[in-house]
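Pilot study result, target chain (399 residues):
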Amino acid sequence: MPSIFLKKGRESSLLRFHPWIFSGAVAKTEGNPAEGDIVTVYSSDRELMGCGHYQVGSITVRILAFDNSPLEPGFWEQRIAEAFDARQKTGLITGSNTNAYRLVHGEGDMLPGLVLDYYNGVVVLQAHSAGMLRERDKIVSALRRVLGNMLLAVYDKSSSTAPFKAGIDLTEGYLYKKGGFAADQSFILENGLKFRVDWEEGQKTGFFLDQRDNRALVKSCSNGKRVLNLFCYTGGFSVYAMAGGASLVHSVDSSSKAIEMTDLNIKANYSGEGGFAHNSYCTDAIDFLKNSKEGRYDLMIVDPPAFAKHRDALKNALRAYQRLNFNAISKIAPGGLIFTFSCSQIVDKISFAEAVFSAAALSRRKVRIVGRLSQPSDHPVNIFHPEGEYLKGLALLVD
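Predicted structure:
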């Protein structure tokens, strides 16, 4: 078994149960591990600190456990069963009006590098490390045992998330199909509302499950409001706003495929009377906002894609958030609400808030924070790994 030995004093983060070992903490490596291998980690005094996946880069090991349990039979089934049990305890699985949720959320479920999203019987797998790619067969076997008849298929969608230099086949496709499964069985229920999910061609795993609670909040605030949903993707916030009684909803996204899915989701929920309240626009969301008439909307959702995926893009990202939110604050009708978000992991909630504060100051309008928003319970944050809190948002009341 390949082993990693740490420099003296560099085991402190592991003693605090942080699951990453950076390359600068490594004193020596024994056994010539390949990327994705499980390695054992020892302190400078040769005390066992844990086991994890080895990788090339700034993060050398992603810890799976602070003992040697990943080497034992049943590890994957136990860890996925623990994640499933956590979702049961928060009511996601026992309810009848929601059948889609995140089953495994990386470090939040002590499976760093792995995302499993459950869509009404279909699990979409995304591996963010070579280690998780190499474990796919074990993960599928564990899913079949834990979920039983609840599992219809497992689809691997790792080509955009896995390290491309690891020399692993990144072809997407089904890892498992139950007899009789048809890929068009792709409608889900979320809080009683219907959504079509395209896990094969859509962004991420097909749907942004992390906004479920925030969508419900928008619904509760939408009655009689004129709503603008920017960067709408497949129209999740738009469907909720209409369910909340919005008088008008405009959905904007630059992707024609996203707009097509938005229209499909609107029709699935409002095929008859009331559908006139919605219009979709396939155009640049930032330009649409700039060209909008002041006071046209009473409620805005500003949920852009990640403006920064790397540390060196942070400054530009914060400036982009400031400009975007300045335009939203400037355009919203008096007494209007703005739900604004950042999903960039490297933009922490303090920096994001400061960018929005600057935008408010430049607008010279009275702006109050009436809510601080984050990710739902099926996207848990390991308390020892605060980096996992990637989604942050503010609900603003603008006078």
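One observation from the pilot: The first helix runs from residue 12 to 15. A full batch analysis is planned for the follow-on phase.
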